[in-house]
Each structure stands twice: as structure tokens, then as C-alpha cells.
Design a protein that fits this description.
The protein contains 25 helices and 18 strands. The chain is of the alpha+beta class and 723 residues long. It starts with a helix and ends with a helix.
Amino acid sequence: MKLFARLRSRKQKNGNILFRYGWKITLLILLAGAGFAVFLFYGTWAQTFDMKNVGEMPERNTVYDVDGKIYSRLAGANRLKVSLSEVSPFFINAVLAREDARFYEHKGIDWRGILRAAVRDIMSRSAKEGASSITQQLARNSLPLGGRTLSRKVLEAMVALRIERQFTKQQILELYVNRIYFGTGCYGVETASQAYFSKSASKLDLSEAAILAGLIRGPNRFSPLKNPKGAAMQGNAVLDRMVALKKITPAQAEQAKIAKINPHPKRLPQIQENYAMDAVQRDLSQLLTQDQIDNGGMSIYTTLDTGVQNAAQDALEKQLTKIEHQSNFHHPLKASYKPPENGEGDSSMPYLQGAVVVIDNASGGIRGLVGGRDYAQSKFNRALSPANRQVGSAFKPFVYTVAFSHGLLPSSAISDGPIQPGEIEGAGNWSPANSDGTYGGTLLCSYGLIHSRNTMSVRVGQFGGLEAVQKVANDLGISQNVPHGPAIYIGSFETDLKDLTAAYSIFPNAGLRKQAYIIERIDNQQHKPIYRAAHISAPALDPGAAWMTSRLMEEVLTQGTAASARSLGFKLPAAGKTGTTNDYKDAWFVGYTSTLTCGVWVGFDQPTTIIPHGYGAALALPVWVQVMNKAAQHYPAVPLQPTMPLQHTTVCSLSNQLATTGCMAAGSAYDLDLPADKVPTAACQIHGGSQWPFAQQAPGTPEKAATLPGRFFKSFRRLFGGR
């Protein structure tokens, strides 16, 4: 009985214990279960984030000029990424002391630091201590974890654990120092070091490193540029912490504290807001995805030459300002323009505009591109499509080249008289006049191009054939929609300056078309090329015919419509052509040396007469002269040379055949040098007589200007009434 009573008493006692502590145990189990559920929930949530985003951080794309010098930056954050080995050990120790002294001991969450921060917050009755480890800071700065809430803190901790499993400590620290914000628009220690102290992060001394580490918690508030005292105070706090952690000695700390810090802010290359960069961005959008562009960090090597670009900008503004001050200019002035208050700028500017494109003949690389006078006031790029304008007489060289490829010669006799009804196929009663309102008799074909005679050019075009001329314009990319009509012989269709200039570069390249381009190479963030220019080239014009036209365009600059180039100070060997459209609404000049081809356009956004008799030679040529003279310092010009053998011959201007004694007697013989494949093979059948004894000579004779010997030229003038 006693044993039974004892057992019964023990059972009652145990029951009382279970009753007394059971609810507590149950509560603990529930809390543990809830904690596990929270851990599971946030752990699962943390798994949804792509860890690749931790290592990807936007930085600006760097744009380089043709010499490999930084020209501008594009898109992304103002960040220059560096490896941890390129960061001063002083800064690494400073940032660890300031932000996470136990970084190498914990696994992403510093529980001791959290407990210490919690105690301090309770004691101070505030929430000043954040206690986020460097890994946690990296998590919230890399991924969209939400706002400043308890939920975000838990998620941040879970993500930090993932980061620690995914990356090494060195990788985490490197990502952190490159991602963190240092104020004044600077991301990453390298950018901050250059911006505040004009030195790379590898060269930071102890005092500078402490100041930068002190910026992290209040980058704008403690900027050494805006608040040097506050920056020094934070830097001193970092130094004291480094002493406490035995990272530096008290003597080092005191020395750093008394060191005089004079920030030397360096203006980092920013985005250049100009038309050349607009062209770069246009091409970039065709070569890369938007994500690639936005992520930044790429090195974009362009063909731009800073010297040529600046010369083009300056020359255009100088000339257009000069035009504005002429007495016969009656339009709004740029100086009087007031941009709209919304700052967007007018879509069509009221004042005189212009554009310049400069292309390297050897490569096709664009050395300079100006699409207007002020990019801040107007983003419309007048050098590129869709800024198409009527090309006018600037198209004539291509018409003559087509005709020369079909057998016409510079010495051929062409009428400069009015176009007669029905004379030109498909023209009806169309009869374009010469720009000066005068007409001559029958003249040498060369005269028509050198002096830009409309009636002669139409007849030359008729010789070449409408389909052939139209095909050349399309094939050369001068225009995508060249109309089918004889008006194209005198440029009655639209193009843009870049395409026209690129087409002209075919002449110094002996008929070879080289694709114009502005981006040479693109390297990714790992400095690996992801794009290289193709350097596309293909035969486009008959080489001999192109050379014959080029020789005439040399005469344009010495005795033709652009002869004023000499008085403007241009003495280099070159060739080119003026262009003027109806009512003087557009003025062009496109020309080239052996090294560069340059095109200039002047006009209004809404086509209107610029000035009375505003020819290309008066308005556009001066810009070309200034640009090419300046560029010649780095792109020396040598005489334009043929790339094919020449033969000296005498031909009849009427028959386009080898001259005979009858041609000599009639005064129609013309002495000139021709590409060997363009020399006629038959004698003139019009005048009869024996073949002129010097009609053909051995190849290799040095070429000379295609001019008629004096006594024969006089006979030619008497016979055909040339003036």
C-alpha cells in the first residue's frame, strides 16, 4: 500500500510539473515552428533573386577617339570599376573598420554586431545602430529588396547568406567597394578617388582613405567638397576605430588627423552633348541591345578625331555668324534666339543652320561630324538622315562619271544652249536654265562640270542614260528613292550630307566605295571585343571614268565655280564640287584631298532663300577651306594620282574618236591624257584624212591638265562659238 501511495504521489507531482510547464513548452514549440516558417519563407524568397545581378553594376560606357583618348561617356552610373588589388590597403582597412570589423569571421550576418547594436539602441532609446554587415549592404544595394522595413531586413539577411555561399570574401569586398555610393554622383572607390583627390584608388593615403570610408554612411552630407569639416570629423572617427582594432598605431592616426587634406576635384569626362555623339549613339543602338547599352562598362572606340571635330564646329559657327552679318541677310539671328521655357527646343530652328562631315579616305572612318550650330538648342542632326535636302549641282560629278564610262570624253563637244522641247527623253517641255541665266554655244564637255552648266549637264546625263544614272545614285547610297526623271541630272532629289560625302570619297579611291562608319570597335566589361567594324569596300564606279571626273573637279578649285578657294587661303592639291539648289535654298560644297573627304551644307530647317545669289562657293566653301586647312596638319595632302596607266592621245571633240588630219584642219582636235581603257580605238569618220601621227603614245606619259593647245582651241572657239 505504501508503495502504491508513493507511486501515486509521484504521478501527481509529475502531472503538476507538466501542467505548470506544458504551456511554456508548447509556446516554445510554436515559436520554434514560427521561426522555422519565417526562415523557410524568407529563405525561399531569397532563392528567387538572381545572384548574377550582384556582380552586374551599371557603369558608363567610355567613348574613345581615333587616338585612343577618352572623348566622352555614355549611359549607366558614373562608375569606374577596379579590382581589389587596385585599391589602397589603407582604404580596405578603413572600410572594414568602419563598416564590418568581423567581415572575415562571419558568414554574412554578424550576430554579435546585431546584439551589440540592439543593446545600444535600447540604451539610447533610438535606432541609430544599423549593424548590417558588408555582405548585407551589398545585398540591398544590388537587388530590389524593398524599403526600410523589418521584412526587408530579414530578407536582406537571407540574401546575404546566399551571397556568402556564392562568392568568396575577396569577391564580395571587391563588389562592395565598386558598388557603394560616395556622393557627388560618384559610384565606386575609383570614381570617388579621382573625383575628390585627382588620383587613382591605389594611391590613396591613410587620411584620404579614412575620409572616403567616412563618406559611406552620409555621402552627400559629409562631402569633402561641400562640408570639409564634417568629412574630417567622420575621417577621424574612422581612424580612431582603426586604432581600436589595431589596424594602425595611435601615432599613424594622429599623423593622418593633422595632415592637411585639400580636395583637388577632378572633372571626370562626362557625356558630351553634341552631334557626333548623337551619331555614335545611333549606330550603337543598331549594334547592341538596349540592356547592353544600359548596363554600361563598355569601351567604344570611334573614328572621331577630336582636332578635326573641333575644327569643323568652329569653322561652321564662324562662317554662319559671318553670313548673318551680311547686309543682304534678312532672317532671325542665332544670337537673338530664345529657347522655349520648357527647355525642349524647337523642332525647327528659325536661324541659319549648317552641317559638316569629314571622312578618312583610306578607311571610311568618320573623323568629324557636325549636325548643327547648337546641340543644346536643337537635337535635330542635319548631317544624317532623315535630314534630307535637295542635292542640286553637287550630284553632277556622278552624272559625268556615268557618261564617261559609256564613252563620252572630257573633250567631247556639248551644247550649252537652251534645252529644246522633246530634246531630252521623258522631259516633255522641261527646260532648266543655267544658274546665271546665260547660255553659250557648243563647248567642251569638261566646261560643263567645271563651271556647273545645267543645260550641258542634262545633255551629258542623256548620253549616260537615265536608268544608269539612277542606278548609280541608288547603288552609292546617295538616296534611297531617286525619282525616275531627267531632273535627277541636275540633282533634283534629296539626300543627307553624310551619304553624299561618303559617295564623293569614291573619287580619291579610284571608284572603290568604302562604307562610312563611326564605331571602330566595342569591348565589353571584360575588355573583350564584341564588335569590330567590317571595313566594307566594293567597286562602285568605273575607275577610269572616276579619274576623269576627278581631274575635272580639280579644275573646279582652280578655275571653276570654287576658284575662290585660293583667295580664301587654300593651296593644297584637292578636287571638289559646289552645289546650289533652286532659289538659293541650299548651299553645298563637297571636296577631297588625297587623305580626307569633307562635305558642307548650309541652309534653313524650313527651306527658304538664304541670301540672293547664295551659291555654294560663297556660303559653304569657306567652311570647307577652314576645316581642310586645319586637318592637313595631321592628314597631309599630296597630289591626286591615277591608279591606272594613262595614255596621251589626240581625239576629235565631235566624233569622240582618234583625231585625224581632217580634225586638225577643222579645229576639233583635242590633246589630252586618258586612262588606257578609255582611249578610242577608231579614227574619226566625220572629218576624214589620215590619223593624226601623235594620236597615241606609249603609256606612262606624266599626266597633264586636259587643256586644248592654244591654236587648236582658237579654231575650236571659232568653229563652235564657245565663249
